């Protein structure tokens, strides 16, 4: 049924199959992020030119699903951290053990969905005791329709969650790639039909599209596992209550630990919602968040996921040779992330206006949106370091160390949210980014903690310094960044459409020259690192 790289490993060759899949993991993750995010980005950018308020409505719709289902990241990380093991043979018993813990994400998710729906109804000031409550159950209120449809979409995804976790631990990479790409495409098609053919309320369009996405995922995972018979699926949703309590306590504790960390991250990400701000702020921030997160997901998310598996596999033994190998691998990953982050900082600010003009035409070029995007590029490099360091810590740390991380993160998150609330009230949408870029309270505290942990783990004598992480020739990127910013200010004429297009070729030419100069300086100095990275993450299927 599945292609070679996607066949579920059996008990006789499970380790070999998993190892071969891990070698191609980075290629699949890049393809997954590239296809799903680009499809969504192109569709959303096209719709923004035709539908007023599109950005804010979409951000509001997706934030509900994100809040309700964010906890499941804890189950995914916990099952990956304490699941099959990298050298163990995968058997029916080990799959059943994993599913008995993974299925607990469903009842917890049901409770979270109900609480989330009630909270959203309360925010809309809908009282069920009023005579108009009949309109709620008659789906006459479009906001109520959107909330309930979003809740239904969450339940559909929760039904597929145990099998998603199983496929993650079996390294069924092609299954994830195909299912998510098809689901994303179907979501965009459904949204287009509802917006342009049925003239439906925009607040309802996105929940209906999300329900289509969730239905596709549910069908894909259940169809695959039922057809391939790779596991006994009767244990996913048992009929008797006592059967739900039959699970591995140690694996459950790992999932709960990571779930606590995921909830903390949710508080940080949604902290700006503690203060009300105008819909124009939401539109501006939505534009920047989509553009910036597209870069982050395409470049750094595959790094983080593949590094998480790589570190966990290498940390199976605490010998001197293992520690040295881990140190070398961590330095390489940090240097690659630093190089990518510096490239974004060097060329992002100087071409923010050009990017906004190219994607949204005249819609979001003027005003604070360009400033927001420039600030976001500086935020990216902190995301790069944080993702790799967090993947390293979560892969090798003990449970007590992870608990200490959760306690530390909780304190830093409270400080972060308070600062973000104050900045939103004072500076609106700009405050959302400033709190993440100029202050960096939570991110800097987390990175500092990670650096202290790595210094202790490597016993000081093998500690990593900033000089080792900086790529050779990094100074040329500083020069390129200054040159492109000056070009954006002095060469690119933004007064009219005609002068803009006349000056654009010279502006692009300056950036191209700086990029080629940067490659000519950095590549010879870091040739071994780049070639080793490409070889390490080469797609071999």
UniProtKB/TrEMBL annotation:
Family label: Belongs to the RFT1 family.
GO cellular component: endoplasmic reticulum membrane
InterPro entries noted in UniProt: RFT1 (IPR007594)
Domain of life according to the entry: Eukaryota
Membrane-crossing residue ranges in chain numbering: 25-47, 104-122, 142-165, 211-230, 336-354, 374-393, 414-434, 474-492, 504-523
Topological relation to the membrane, as annotated: Multi-pass membrane protein
GO biological process: dolichol-linked oligosaccharide biosynthetic process; glycolipid translocation
Keywords: Endoplasmic reticulum, Membrane, Transmembrane, Transmembrane helix
Name assigned to this protein: Protein RFT1 homolog
């Amino acid at each position: 049924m599945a292609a070679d790289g996607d066949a579920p490993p059996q008990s006789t060759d499970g380790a070999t199959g998993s190892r071969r899949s891990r070698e191609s993991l980075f290629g699949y993750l890049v393809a997954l992020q590239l296809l799903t995010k680009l499809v969504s980005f192109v569709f959303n950018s096209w719709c923004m030119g035709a539908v007023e308020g599109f950005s804010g409505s979409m951000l509001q719709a997706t934030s509900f699903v994100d809040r309700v289902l964010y906890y499941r990241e804890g189950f995914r990380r916990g099952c990956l951290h304490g699941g099959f093991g990298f050298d163990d043979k995968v058997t029916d018993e080990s799959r059943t053990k994993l599913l008995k813990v993974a299925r607990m994400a469903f009842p917890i998710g049901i409770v979270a969905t109900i609480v989330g729906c009630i909270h959203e109804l309360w925010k809309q000031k809908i009282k069920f005791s009023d005579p108009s409550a009949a309109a709620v159950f008659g789906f006459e209120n479009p906001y109520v329709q959107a909330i309930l449809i979003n809740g239904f979409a969450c339940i559909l995804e929760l039904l597929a969650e145990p099998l998603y976790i199983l496929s993650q631990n079996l390294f069924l990479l092609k299954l994830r790639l195909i299912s998510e790409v098809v689901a994303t495409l179907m979501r965009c098609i459904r949204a287009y039909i509802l917006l342009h053919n049925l003239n439906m309320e925009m607040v309802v369009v996105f929940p209906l599209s999300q329900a289509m996405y969730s239905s596709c995922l549910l069908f894909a995972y259940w169809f695959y596992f039922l057809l391939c018979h790779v596991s006994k699926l009767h244990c996913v949703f048992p009929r008797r209550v006592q059967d739900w309590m039959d699970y591995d306590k140690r694996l459950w504790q790992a999932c709960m630990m990571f779930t606590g960390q995921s909830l903390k991250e949710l508080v940080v990400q949604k902290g700006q919602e503690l203060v009300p701000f105008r819909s124009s702020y939401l539109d501006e921030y939505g534009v920047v968040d989509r553009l910036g997160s597209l870069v982050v997901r395409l470049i750094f998310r595959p790094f983080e996921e593949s590094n998480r598996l790589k570190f966990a596999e290498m940390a199976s033994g605490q010998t001197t040779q293992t520690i040295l190998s881990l140190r070398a691998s961590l330095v390489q990953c940090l240097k690659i992330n630093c190089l990518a982050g510096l490239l974004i900082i060097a060329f992002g600010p100087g071409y923010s206006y050009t990017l906004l003009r190219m994607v949204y035409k005249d819609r979001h070029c003027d005003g604070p949106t360009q400033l927001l995007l420039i600030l976001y590029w500086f935020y990216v490099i902190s995301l790069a370091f944080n993702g790799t360091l967090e993947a390293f810590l979560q892969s090798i740390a003990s449970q007590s160390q992870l608990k200490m991380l959760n306690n530390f993160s909780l304190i830093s998150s409270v400080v972060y949210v308070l600062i973000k609330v104050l900045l939103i009230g004072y500076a609106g949408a700009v405050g959302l980014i400033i709190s993440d870029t100029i202050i960096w309270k939570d991110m800097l505290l987390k990175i500092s903690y990670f650096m202290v942990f790595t210094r202790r783990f490597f016993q000081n004598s093998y500690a990593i310094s900033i000089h080792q992480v900086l790529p050779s020739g990094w100074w040329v990127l500083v020069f390129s960044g200054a040159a492109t910013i000056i070009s954006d200010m002095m060469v690119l004429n933004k007064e009219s459409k005609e002068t803009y297009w006349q000056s654009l070729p010279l502006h692009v030419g300056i950036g191209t020259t700086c990029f080629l100069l940067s490659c000519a300086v950095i590549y010879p100095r870091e040739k071994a690192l780049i070639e080793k990275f490409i070889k390490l993450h080469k797609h071999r299927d």
